[in-house]
Amino acid sequence: MADLDNLNLPKTIGRYQVLRLLGSGAMGSVVLAEDPRIKRKVAIKLMKLDTVTTDADRHEHLMRFQREAEVSGLLNHPGIVAIYDVGEEEGYGPFLAMEYVPGKPLDGLMKEGAVLPNKEKLRIAAGLAEALDHAHAKGIVHRDVKPGNAMVGEDGRTKLMDFGIAKREDASLTQTGTFLGTPSYASPEQIREGTVDSRSDIFSFGVLVFELMSSQSPFPGTSINTILYRIVNEPPIEVQPPVLGMLPEGWRRVFDKVLAKRPEDRHATCTAFVRELLDVVVDLSKDDRRELLGLLKANGDSPIPEIRSTSFDETMVVARPEPRGSGRIWVAAAVVAALAVGGWFLLRGPKAARLQIDSQPAGAKVFVNDLAVGTTPMNQPLQAGDALRLELKGFRPLVYAFKPGEAPPIFPLDPIITEETIDSVPPGAAVVLDEKLLEGETPLKVRWNQGQAHRLTLTKEKLGYASDFAPGEIPGGRAFELKEATTAESRQEPPLDPNAPGTLKLAGAFGVRVKVDGKDMGDLAPGAKLSLPPGPHKVDLASGKHYYKDSRNLSVTAGQTAPLNLPALATLTVETFPGTGKVLVDGQDTGIESDGSSVKVAEGRHTITVRGPKGSRNETVEVKGDKGLKFPL
Fold first, then answer.
1. What does the alpha-carbon distance between residue 401 and residue 387 come to, in Å, rounded to a whole number?
2. For the residues of 294-325, what is the DSSP string, one character each?
3. Going by C-beta distance under 8 Å and a sequence separation of 6 or more, which residues neighbour residue 65?
4. What is the CATH number of domain 569-632?
């Protein structure tokens, strides 16, 4: 007990015998204790009295403790930490006795870089989704959904905790318009108005799952202002490289929906979001998929191991009428969804028909009721009303509601047509696209059919550039570096040995750090060559000096040299008024002030931040050529 004395903790709290300290936060501490009557271990949360300076604050803190106990009384779910008792210990203040569950907080696991397979990550997400949907069905909004408020047991199951500033329909503990929560996980409406409902929790849960699956934040930033701005105004970042075992197109579709700026555009429930996410996972067996879908059934009877709570954050309850028979509806919805996604093809009745699904062109991914089932051409059992979707890179998705006897023999896919700018370094090159000379010189706008492969050749005097583009690939505004001996007439022939190494040659005005397939290859100077075995490679490029970062999937041909093109450099000048501040590009300190000083950056999209003594300002700009920024600070 000497340790408790040193920590200024009591030996008993109420009738509970204190054993040891579990954790500490801004509002209080959590200790492990034992109920001597039934020999049950509990976690007890104590409020720190020294954080309370006024009688009003004391009253509010007491109300929050009482309100958390009341909210717990409304919730009865194995995925939510239960609260057993509430009281006050003389000299130490109010306390909550809650379920003690040994485990690790999810944020701790994520910070440790724990390597978990997709199945285990999705198990965690499914458990949290069920818990949140249970709370929402009771009219309770957590308001601070984040990894720190989730605990993970040894078998991977999770518990949601810290319903700390709950507000029921007859309470007004939290004022409308007051921002509470954690900035990185706040919803756009929570940031703008400070008002939330269950859809705000769904957004926060989407951010949590995005980080859990990709180890990246969807709205990164080095300051709170940057993070809040991106949440309100920008889409989630593109994950590079894509998450292993998940379809990149499906990933974007699912997270664009759950992280939509407008609440009405998001998934209706957290479990609906997880179910849709399961459809884009390709490295799960049928048994694993069935098991995860089973976790999404609204069933409160399955046992979950105990997990301890150590976090102190905010929640809110909003008034919402509970529909009659909601428990039966949740169970029925979960069972129907599980059958529809996990085993629908096993349960086809006599009305099902088999359809030969073919597309023009072939090779399209086929989804039935949002479940990936194969690629065209293929034979598939379908029932009237089944939603059929075909996706092929470079083509617009095709959606069709199946009607027996009316399905077309071939589904025609429409190519995506875009306007692309062909540019070169130096400019003024002649452009040959698919062996046809176009009118004009670079920079030149062209009509680009993404549904077909293209051959692009640029020439200017003795300089040239040539490259092949697969369907779905576009120039993307890049400026192609011209060099000698790369015209169509001087292309290299492949060697007799198909296993001979190929070469990548860095073409650009600055050097970069190169990683190939995750292996660090060191720094490459302009014109340097890199020998690689033939075949596809993932190449990561970075230059901290010029604020450049890119990831590409390239194919190396045996015996041939291909250019590794970098964007041009541009001079960026930043000036603010009436005061000046430190200039950062993409979160990196440039070492200059916003007094009209300049810095060299790689052309492309950058976020410029100026931090002054009275605040900061962010500007996201597209840099193409020398650019000057001038704005008030």
1. 5
2. HHTS--TTS-------------EE---PPPTT
3. 45, 47, 86, 94, 95, 96
4. 2.60.40.10
* pLDDT confidence band for 61 (50 / 70 / 90): low
Highest mean pLDDT among 18-27, 181-190, 249-258, 475-484: 249-258
Gyration radius (Cα) of the chain, Å: 29
Alpha carbon distance 18, 8 (integer Å): 12
The strand pair at 588-593 and 595-602 is best described as unpaired
Nearest CA-CA partner of 508 in 475, 486, 482: 482
CA distance 10 to 158: 30
Is 3.60.21.10 the CATH classification of the domain at 2-99? no
Phi, psi of 476, rounded to the nearest 5 degrees: 65, 25
Residue with tokens 């989804």: 367
Q: For the chain, what are the domain ranges?
A: 2-99, 104-339, 354-411, 417-565, 569-632
* Residue scoring higher pLDDT (114 or 549): 549
Catalytic residue among 35, 107, 144, 283: 144
Global pTM value: 0.48
144 assigned to active site: yes
CATH 3.40.50.720 at 104-339, yes or no: no
